Amino acid sequence: MKALLILFVLMNLDKLLKTAHCTETQDQVLSITPKTQEQVDILKNVSTQYETALWQPVSPHYIKEDTQVHLFVPANSSETVKDLLQRYAITHEVLLANPNELIEMQTRNDSGDPRSSSTFYERYHSLEDIYFWINRTQQDNPDTVKVILIGSSFEKRPLYVLKLSVNNRPNKKAMWIDCGIHAREWISPAFCLWFVQYSLSFYQLNEDITNILDNMDVYILPVLNPDGYHYTWTTNRMWRKNRSTNRGTKCIGVDLNRNFDANWCTEGASDQPCTEIYCGAFPESEPETQAVADFLRSHKDIVQIYLSIHSYSQMLLFPYSCTLEETENHSELLEMVQEAAQKIQRHYRNIYTYGSGAKTIYLAPGGSDDWAYKLGIKYSFTFELQDRGRYGFLLPPSHISKACNEALLAVKTIALKVVEKTQAPA
Ligand code: 9B3
Ligand code: ZN
Ligand code: ZN
């Protein structure tokens, strides 16, 4: 009898294993809308207690009734999380059934693949590729492009800024653009590359970019957070912060966009290293923050425009984020982003919301745009590029060109306005 049982088990072993394999779940991104305070509390708990990654909002603190939460749920917590949602009757739908497939598509090294017709700028690139690109761009454009080393990251990676300059007009002003403060927002470094390529290709061909470059130099930092970006390519696609170690905890990383000296670590940031919005031990505690702040301090008399590129949610933001107060030039900034948003809607049929950070998304201190504004750079902006949640941080490469062209139109609109307002024609 015993032998028979063993035989039976053995005969069906492959079937039993297969069943187990079929019900094995995958990583997923869920869209969840809590309807009651109890459901809000459960969700806050889920997103902190279980191995998940909150996409939207950025911190459990902001989860509220009747507002969508986008949550990345890895396979190993999937069952527990779904059980909890079911038990408390919390409405949810699957936003992305197979994020891993999207991740695989985005990281596939298709540079040698003849079937891929997309160009270099319509793909995402590893950090190594980007360093290589920086070098090559300088070599190919020795008269217009300079590479400036402004510092290094926590893990000692270089922070390179490209300086685009088409002439040596005296008293020339400048625009600063940084990308990749947040590691998982891959469309952001892609935009910096796109912008450089566009500027180099269309100077003297497109009237707007010609006018801008004739009147100002552009400083571009393609990857402000190289350690984090590298980590999203090798280990965890959903990583946001930098990779610095913190005293007294195993939790890694500081949110670099909470580490600048603008109402530092007040409401909207956290002093807890294990959170996604950890402000760091003190303002500019991180080498990445310090490098950018030092560079801008030493160039503040020439830099007129500060621009920081993030994703996702399609917003054109300006200071303040760290207080509900309005800046002295609030209406001027509002007019500029409104015009930019209108142009995007007209040309690309896509909606961007706009306004001061605190009134448009959330109260958030320690951001680079607020700090730059307080330094004296009165035209200071943060753009949140595509999309509005369909793919979130996993925006497919096929969407890069439209996302970047929209952002480019906004940059042009703002830069041209600043040239017109502040400079006598050359
Ligand atoms: C946050 C702050 Cl602190 C700021 N000054 N401007 C924009 C934002 C929004 C980004 C963030 O860091 O949360 C969006 Se990813
Ligand atoms: Zn961001
Ligand atoms: Zn964002």
Write up what this structure looks like.
- The protein has 13 helices and twelve strands.
- With 426 residues, the chain is of the alpha/beta class.
- Helix content is 40%, strand content 17%.
- β5 (145-152) and β6 form a beta hairpin.
- α6 (187-202) packs across α13, α7 (207-215) packs across α13 and α10 runs antiparallel to α13 (400-422).
- The structure holds ligand 9B3 and zinc ion (2 copies).
- Ligand 9B3 binds next to α12 and β12.
- One of its GO terms (biological process) is proteolysis.
- Keywords: Carboxypeptidase, Disulfide bond, Hydrolase, Metal-binding, Metalloprotease, Protease, Signal, Zinc.
- Pfam families: Peptidase_M14, Propep_M14.
Brief summary:
The chain has 13 helices and 12 strands. The chain has helices spanning 2-23, 37-49, 75-87, 99-107, 127-140, 187-202, 207-215, 226-234, 287-298, 330-348, 357-360, 368-375, 400-422; strands spanning 28-33, 53-56, 69-73, 91-96, 145-152, 158-164, 173-179, 216-221, 303-311, 315-318, 353-356, 379-385. Strand 10, helix 10 and strand 11 form a beta-alpha-beta unit.
Provide key terms for this protein.
signal; carboxypeptidase activity; zinc; 4-stranded antiparallel β-sheet; alpha/beta; 426 residues; carboxypeptidase; 40% helix; single chain; CARBOXYPEPT_ZN_1
